[in-house]
Amino acid sequence: MTPADITNENRYLGELVPKICRYAGLGGLALLAASVVLGWAGEAGLERFLRSYLVAFFFVLSLSLGGLFFVLLQHLTRAGWSVVVRRIAEGLADNLKWLWIPFIPILVAVWTGHLYDWADPSSLSEAEWALFQHKEPFLTPWFWTIRAAVYFGVWAWLARFFVNRSVQQDATGDPQTTARMQSVAAPGMILYALTQSFAAVDWIMTLEFAWYSTMFGVYFFAASTCGAFAAMIIIFYLLQRSGRLTNVITTEHYHDLGKLLFAFGVVFWAYIAYSQYMLIWYANIQEETIWFVIRQLGGWKSMSIFLILGHFAGPFLILISRYPKRWKGVLAIGAAWMLGVHFIDLYWLVMPAIPADLIHSVTTYSQLVTEFKAYGAEYDLHWRVFDVMCLLGMLGVFVAMAAWSMRNRSLVPEKDPRLAESLAFENY
Amino acid sequence: MNDPTTTAAPTDRPSAAQSATPREPGEVIGKLYGLLAEFETPAAIMVAAHRVREAGYKWWDCHTPFPVHGLDKAMGIRPTILPWLVMGAGLTGAVTGVVLQWYTNATNLDAWLIVPITGYDFLVSGKPMWSLPANIPVIFELTVLFAAIGCVTMMLLLSKLPWLYHPCLKNERFLRASDDRFFIVIEARDPLFYRRKSQEFLKSLGATAVEALEA
Is the ipTM of this structure higher than 0.85? Predict the structure, then answer.
């Protein structure tokens, strides 16, 4: 088979951009506004809505961070196969430059003492205060805000650096640009690893400030790669359905993206999730086990079991084989499923919130189960309409912004020195 | 080979070129192994392999200095069953891991395994005697170990390796199979193999040379 000639391809979003901006962007904004009204004014209460908002925010953040990881990884390894799929990952990462805007409500929540227990130390009980004391210098709104600014600054800079140079190369064709990106990829990867780990710790793990897991940053990393690789597969599938890049992206590229989704989003995620669980289960220290104990009550227990089966066991058995990964319709359905369970995974991380007095009033697990059955109904898993509305709204705006920044850009890095290699790429 | 002194020096097994009575290149004195056809480009061997397959030959192979993409397809090689065998090996490892830990840690049963053995149910840090989270690492490691060893072993068995000797290696021309030439070998045991007919056939595929191989 002869490699595709990119000049014969439809490789611009073109007339899709205004459509995406209108339907996804405006629709997304409308959904977001409606979810705010429903959440704030509804019976669920502000705290519940803020958590829902945090899940939706983290969902789009994970797509961007996963995209940035992909770009860094390809430059770091000087990969040839991935050149034709890199531009879409750059598009995902490019959104990091404005993701600080949807972060503002979370910032306001912290400064006004919402969402995080530590944001309002006066509400802590004496027992909680004893646990909080050592963490107080780290968890002040000031220091927390400065850290958040650093994370967004580093991400925006990294994304800008790689995206701008890649787009410049489309015009200049200068191979030195690639060399420069490769040399920045290594320190960039270190910066990326540190900022995304700390962000996960700062923004999700501190929801339960007494709890700690040294693996939490890696857990979020595994989850974000799952989201980004699944998103990339779906984007390529939809682009090809719309008549773009029809010969440029081949079965071979889908196969490799499928391998990455399988390796990072399914196996690595399960490996990290299990390792985190096993260490805490073995050590059996109360402050640590409580995080898993509350995820073994009522509906949260069903959700935990669902994640084991739906995020690991099922996808593992299907995606391990070569054939589903080379059959793009099946792979796209698998990717859509993985994107869905990735959302449930984030929901499972953020949502369970059981007040300390319910937990500390009992001494054994079976007592807790009885107590929870009697008094815990309001803390049990309870889906709200605005959970989904907020997610879809945020995702719609995210997609519209990505499409908008791609409006004048080719969907492939046109003059990358390794483009020919990527076009002719074959798995062996 | 580049050193002129070594080419003239006698070796244990004189090659065709060095034997007392000079032979025609590729002349066979002993049993015939097959025919060796030389091609100069990957494209040429690709087309040729396709034609050999279409002609209906079964016992034949290609030798190239590097993996030629699509050659498997041109030759009509079916996908290997190795993945299924590896899965079997992995599952065996997983079952071994489960049974091993269950028997040694969670029971006190007596049994005979060449020597008398006994389970030893020992309470570790207040956990249940049989608790899956503690057992998963061993199950996982044994799965990987069995699958990896099984994979390598069965790959060798399926490829009938190791071979200590191959008739191709006697041929001077074949040395370039590790450098810049591409070869097709049709074996004499193939039901469609006829010395003259097959030789003409290989020539017609654009082979730059066709030589007989001695078994």
Answer: no
